[in-house]
Amino acid sequence: MQRIYEPADLLEAQLLLGMLQQRGFTVRLLGADLLGAMGELPAMGLLGLMVPDEDARLARQLIDEYLSATPEPCEPSNLLPVEGPWMA
Fold this sequence. Notes:
- By secondary structure, this protein is α+β, with helices and mostly antiparallel strands.
- The protein has one domain: Alpha-Beta Plaits (2-Layer Sandwich).
- Helices cover 30% and strands 12% of the residues.
- The chain contains 2 helices and 3 strands.
- The chain has a 3-stranded antiparallel β-sheet, covered by helices on one side.
- The longest helix is centred in the first third of the chain and has 13 residues, at 10-22.
- The termini are far apart.
């Protein structure tokens, strides 16, 4: 297994873990249990995503593509109207 990415936080870790699992990868998240001790341990490098050696290149590529994606702008016509008694 190879450590392919160090997520910034648990939210990013879970998001990327789920993305890779949906693509059929076997993925392990290391360090999630250590987050409770962050006051006593250095905060950087606790989390790590690991995949089998043969999947490392493709998994890194998918993570890079995800991280470099630009969200599409939201058109005002797609927004739900904000109405209610608080809008007086």
